[in-house]
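Problem 12. The chain below contains 77 residues. Write out its predicted structure in token notation.
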Amino acid sequence: MGFGGISIWQLLIILLIVVMLFGTKRLKSLGSDLGDAIKGFRKSMDNEENKAPPVEEQKGQTIEAQARKVEEPARKD
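Solution.
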């Protein structure tokens, strides 16, 4: 039984290599830092949604103007 073609033994070997490279303390601090970053992101997103002022409908203004045709000067060929 495997995960997408990877057996459990291959996953264990990869996990062992990662632990050997980074050490358990560094992996633990990396995990907690990542968790804190996600929590901070979610908190800021919630705050932004609560702070957003309600959108007010603006009354439009009508601008009256008259269109006129501008004639181009004659060309000299």
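Discussion. The beta strands are 2-3, 6-7. Students who got a different answer should revisit the alignment rule from Section 12.3.
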